[in-house]
Structures are given as C-alpha cells and as structure tokens.
Automatic annotation (TrEMBL):
This is Ribonuclease Z. It comes from Kiloniella laminariae. Residues 17-192 form the Metallo-beta-lactamase domain. PANTHER family: METALLO-HYDROLASE YHFI-RELATED, ZINC PHOSPHODIESTERASE ELAC PROTEIN 1. It holds the Pfam family Anti-Pycsar_Apyc1. It comes from the Bacteria.
Amino acid sequence: MEIDVLGAGEAFSPRDPNASVLVREEGFCLLIDCGPTVPQQLWSRDLSPDTIDAIYITHLHSDHCAGLGPLANQLESRGRTKALDIYCLPQGVERLKAALDFGLWPRPEACPFPVRWHDVRTCRTIGPMQCRIAPTAHSVINHAIRLDAAGKSLFYSGDGAATKASLELMKGADLVFQESWADGPENLEPGHFDARSCLKIAVEMTIPLMRLYHIRDDLIGQVEAIVAETDNVRVASAGEIIIL
C-alpha cells in the first residue's frame, strides 16, 4: 500500500495544502478528501484522467470537499470516460453532487464519465482494500476510515477528537493519520484533537507510524518540538510518500 500525502494543512493555511492523501493498492487509486487546494496538488503530479478510481469524503466541511468541482472539471476536460466512485454518508450526496455539477456547469448532465455514489456505512471494500469506518468527535458528522490490504493497514481520522469507536478502529494499524489541531489540551478547541494526546495513544497502542496533520498554523512549531524525540510520530508534510 502506497500513501501519497497531497496536503496536511488546516482549513485556511497560507502555506500548506488542505489535508488529503492518495492511497494506491494493486493498481487501484483512492483519494481521501478533496479540499479547494487539493486539485492543484493532483494536477502537479500530471496524472492520467483515469488514475483516480474512487474518492472518500470524511465530512462536509469545505476544506475536505470543495475541490470536487474543479477536479471534475479537469477530469472532463482531459477526456475521462471511466466511472468515478464516490463514498460518503447518504446525507452528503446532495451537497457533493451540487459541487460536482457546479464544476461541470453549464452542462453537468453531459459529463462524459458516470459518477456512482456509495453509502460508506454499508461498504466492506473499496477496490482491493477492506474498509471500516468509525465516528470521531467533530462539529459535524465525520468518520475516520481504516483500509486493510495484503496484511497492511492505514487509519485516517478526518477531523475530530478520537472517540472510543475511532480508537478501536485504530488498533493494530500500521500507519495512523490523526488530526491534531493543537499542541496540547490548553490550546484545544471543541471538535479537534492535540499532539500530546496523540503521543500518548501512539505509546499505549504501540503504533508503528503516526502522522499528525490539520495543525493550527501558529502551533506547528510547538507540535514539531513535541514529537521531535520520537521515532514513530511525525508531522505530515505534502509530498511525503509512505509505502507499507
């Protein structure tokens, strides 16, 4: 399993692209989240319009889904014909479809590639990967996802503080991406998580690799200092490729 970090930034970061990863397994390519600054990261990789097989949206905040329109526009303009599978919760379909249609305006009905919508709650696989989800504690409904394939596993939290369910989903994962808005509880805002709590989890659950992301811009230095003495926990950075 290959994880290409497209971005790790918080919603309005002036320097880091919005948090998103590309996951590749056996020739299948899954995009997790697509904020407004994510399409440019994809375009910079000069991918074929048929490269991305599926998209999973963790939640409906714009920094995780507002790039769908521009991405659809680019895929159309470059001649994609292969179906695109989008995984989300049912209540998200209308809003996400509106984003796609706006990107394809003025004739979304003429889109040359079909879009197939999937209720992620009922899916057990995405491509060649087994998948499971669990809610986190965020200001809107957000579901972390775990992907397993060929004996390796990725956990990706989306936004939000860890919950009993998401921690259970995290157990035994080879690589954990955990949102970490603040350095510690003293700077924490409701609906987010912090680096010190992440370190505690990494130790207690003996997580091999953990990447912290969606960090408040003015606290990145503090978070980097907190994890500097660890071998397995790092701040995620755009362009990093991790192979499990």
